[in-house]
């Protein structure tokens, strides 16, 4: 009898559509990663586009033609709207000087005046056409758009915490637990009959704390300590928003507080985020879950945020935060590691967490701000400012290349107990221009063992049907899906793919639509 030939095992496609859809997760165990392929175990220099695909972040273009002189690193960047409705930029530098630009950062004038300080972590607020500022161990200083900053003689010596809200200025006193407030509509009067103070020493429920940050949250005055969050409201329902003589404590939350003053940021959807000792937290979520404040926005990146905070050993209040509704993201700067932590605000899971990515190579931009027109501006180390735009850092000059990095969890390809022989990897990319990338992979929790570099060229297809629709050639200079195949090798029970896309030739958006592998299943393991 003729022996029946054994049929070869067919090669099968293992596809991940929407890779990294759930964002960076540094908390996955080995088996959790296998079960959920939508996570990214590494995600660098990424944002999410309107289709929720991981995309390359933008870089910056320098807007300054005549840089600030001296110790010029921009440590604080603030947009000032003066009484005439003119918008200017205010910068505090590492040389402890204050500068102003009336031409969107192109040129700068020194407006420090008689201020002498040893701190550059000052806080600036706009208030009825003027800008007020204060730093640790200093009184409040004022600038009205002309001349230089001048000291407000009646103001208290602060701990560098100031707030403009409810028709007044509020400031936390240095080495004390007292909050002073100015007269109504007068930021220069801190001793008149309409001014006053609040002693928070009696409201801390777990011993002594210090006022680290003040924020307005709707009609609530929020006082952040390191281990407490105290909320004040006006019980009389004053038309002034809050009447300090009618204020009372409506809620106190223990066990969490703020680590860095400027890490608190109001989110457009009626929320306030801040960096606490346990990570990035949402005030609305903390209020709802007071019994468990450890459920944080950053619960899927908790160990990463812990490491970032541990390396913030330099200047106090170095972590800063901005919210950009135009780019639907929140950015936190961590200067100790020269990284930014980005959260996409388009989607939220049921536990209140958001998708995240790490931006690397940020040593040249220690601060940032969002302007009224929606632009994101960075304060740079060279006494300049840069606008979030293009796909190279310092575009037009240094043209520094950075990389979109994505790594899958460990994948079992749907067959947990079978050996997988990887014959190749493929990816679908959305975008334009040439893509230069590297695929690396490994097996069974070992370090990355194999790699392949490839270039995927963009070919323009011309106008659709040869006709320009509405005066423009549709698809002629637009984006398209490209497929890239890379031969593979190796075998194991689990495999992991690491993909790096450089911004070398990218002049427009590039996103990863899909990744997958061609595998053969072998014996039981």
Describe the model.
The protein is mostly beta strands and 525 residues long. Residues 462-477 have low confidence and may be disordered. It has a domain at 12-56 and 404-524: Jelly Rolls, CATH 2.60.120. Strands 1, 5, 6, 35, 38, 39 and 41 form a seven-stranded antiparallel β-sheet that branches. Strands 4-34-40-36-37 form a five-stranded antiparallel β-sheet, with no helix packed on it. The chain is globular and about 85 Å long. The longest helix has 9 residues, at 302-310. A hairpin with a 2-residue loop joins strand 12 (123-127) and strand 13 (130-134).
What is the compact description of this entry?
By secondary structure, this protein is mostly beta strands. The protein has a domain at 12-56 and 404-524: Sandwich (Jelly Rolls). It is built from 3 helices and 41 strands.
């Amino acid at each position: 009898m003729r022996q029946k030939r054994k049929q070869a095992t067919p090669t099968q496609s293992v596809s991940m559509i929407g890779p990294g859809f759930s964002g960076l997760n540094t908390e996955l165990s080995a088996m959790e990663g296998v079960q959920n392929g939508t996570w990214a175990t590494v995600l660098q220099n990424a944002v999410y586009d309107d289709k929720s695909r991981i995309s390359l972040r933008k870089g910056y273009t320098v807007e300054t033609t005549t840089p600030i002189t001296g110790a010029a690193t921009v440590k604080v960047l603030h947009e000032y709207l003066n009484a005439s409705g003119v918008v200017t930029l205010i910068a505090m530098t590492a040389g402890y000087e204050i500068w102003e630009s009336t031409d969107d950062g192109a040129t700068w004038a020194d407006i420090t005046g008689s201020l002498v300080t040893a701190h550059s972590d000052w806080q600036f607020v706009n208030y009825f056409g003027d800008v007020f500022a204060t730093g640790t161990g200093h009184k409040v200083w004022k600038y009205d758009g002309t001349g230089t900053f001048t000291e407000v003689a009646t103001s208290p010596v602060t701990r560098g915490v100031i707030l403009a809200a409810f028709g007044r200025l509020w400031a936390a006193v240095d080495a004390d637990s007292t909050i002073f407030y100015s007269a109504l509509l007068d930021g220069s009067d801190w001793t008149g009959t309409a001014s006053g103070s609040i002693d928070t020493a009696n409201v801390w429920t777990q011993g002594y704390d210090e006022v680290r940050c003040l924020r307005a949250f709707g009609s609530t005055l929020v006082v952040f300590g390191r281990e407490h969050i105290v909320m004040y409201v006006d019980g009389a329902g004053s038309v002034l928003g809050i009447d300090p003589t009618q204020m009372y404590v409506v809620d106190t939350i223990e066990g969490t507080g703020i680590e860095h003053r400027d890490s608190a940021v109001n989110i457009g959807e009626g929320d306030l985020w801040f960096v606490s000792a346990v990570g990035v937290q949402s005030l609305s979520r903390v209020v709802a879950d007071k019994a468990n404040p450890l459920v944080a926005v950053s619960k899927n990146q908790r160990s990463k945020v812990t490491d970032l905070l541990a390396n913030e050993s330099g200047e106090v209040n170095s972590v800063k935060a901005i919210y950009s509704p135009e780019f639907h993201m929140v950015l936190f700067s961590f200067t100790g590691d020269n990284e930014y932590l980005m959260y996409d605000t388009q989607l939220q899971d049921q536990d209140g967490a958001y998708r995240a990515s790490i931006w690397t190579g940020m040593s040249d931009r220690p601060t940032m701000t969002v302007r009224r027109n929606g632009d994101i501006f960075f304060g740079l180390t060279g006494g300049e400012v840069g606008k979030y735009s293009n796909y190279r850092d310092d575009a037009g000059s240094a043209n520094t290349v950075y990389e979109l990095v994505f790594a899958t969890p460990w994948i079992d390809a749907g067959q947990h107990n079978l050996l997988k022989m990887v014959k190749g990897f493929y990816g679908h990319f959305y975008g334009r221009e040439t893509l230069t990338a590297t695929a690396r992979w490994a097996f069974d929790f070992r370090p990355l063992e194999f790699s392949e570099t490839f270039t995927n060229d963009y070919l323009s297809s011309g106008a659709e049907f040869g006709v320009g629709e509405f005066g423009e050639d549709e698809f002629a200079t637009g984006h398209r899906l490209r497929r890239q195949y890379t031969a593979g090798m190796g075998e194991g029970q689990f495999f992991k793919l690491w993909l790096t896309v450089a911004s070398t030739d990218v002049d427009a958006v590039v996103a990863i639509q899909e990744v997958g592998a061609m595998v053969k299943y072998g014996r039981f393991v």
